[in-house]
Design brief:
It holds the Pfam family MarR_2. InterPro entries: HTH_MarR-typ, WH-like_DNA-bd_sf, WH_DNA-bd_sf. The chain is mainly α. The protein has six helices and two strands. The protein has a single domain, classed as Arc Repressor Mutant, subunit A (Orthogonal Bundle), CATH 1.10.10.10. Strands 1-2 form a two-stranded antiparallel sheet. The radius of gyration is 22 Å and the shape is elongated.
């Protein structure tokens, strides 16, 4: 990566992390796509393997998605034989789910994909420096929130101007 003059451009940690994250995610998604799943499926399998018997609703809460979205994810996993209903839902009953042998195989594929990317990072960077960065990266992920979205509300410091008209958004007193 060079600038117009052939030199190294000014580095933004956020920009570099976004680029790296995009490339790493693409590597994992490619591996998982060969198995017919995506990261969201792998995430659901991971939650179910750690906590067997979770309901659709609980999985949706953990993944910060709607129950309808989780239903679609789990339907795909059920169709592929990666999860099965331990108890049936309906009439006010909550369906409980469990990971099957096929689901455990898919989890292993996902774990290997992440391990391969960890090895790539260790080859590209000093492994000791990489390990030392982990606590800071973890704190940064927590500070950024669980999901991307609109900026967090800030305290008002006075009237705000509308970006197109230049007029105040809020009346002043």
């Amino acid at each position: 990566m060079t600038d117009d003059r052939g030199g190294v451009p000014p580095l933004s940690p956020a920009f570099l992390l976004i680029m790296l994250g995009s490339r790493l995610r693409g590597g994992v998604e490619t591996r998982l796509a060969a198995e017919g799943i995506a990261i969201r499926h792998l995430s659901a399998l991971g939650h179910l393997s750690r906590d067997p018997g979770l309901s659709y609703s609980e999985l949706a809460r953990r993944a910060s998605v709607t129950p309808q979205s989780m239903q679609a994810t789990l339907s795909k996993l059920e169709e592929s034989g990666a999860v099965e209903k331990v108890t049936g839902g309906g009439r006010g009953r909550t369906a409980k789910l469990a990971v099957t042998d096929e689901g455990r195989r898919l989890l292993d594929v996902g774990k290997q994909a992440y391990a391969d990317l960890d090895a790539l990072l260790s080859e590209a960077m000093d492994p000791v420096a990489l390990r030392e960065m982990l606590p800071g990266l973890f704190r940064a992920v927590q500070a950024a929130g669980d999901r991307p979205g609109p900026e967090r509300p800030r305290e008002s410091t006075g009237p705000h101007r509308h970006s197109r008209t230049g007029k105040n958004d809020r009346p002043t007193t």
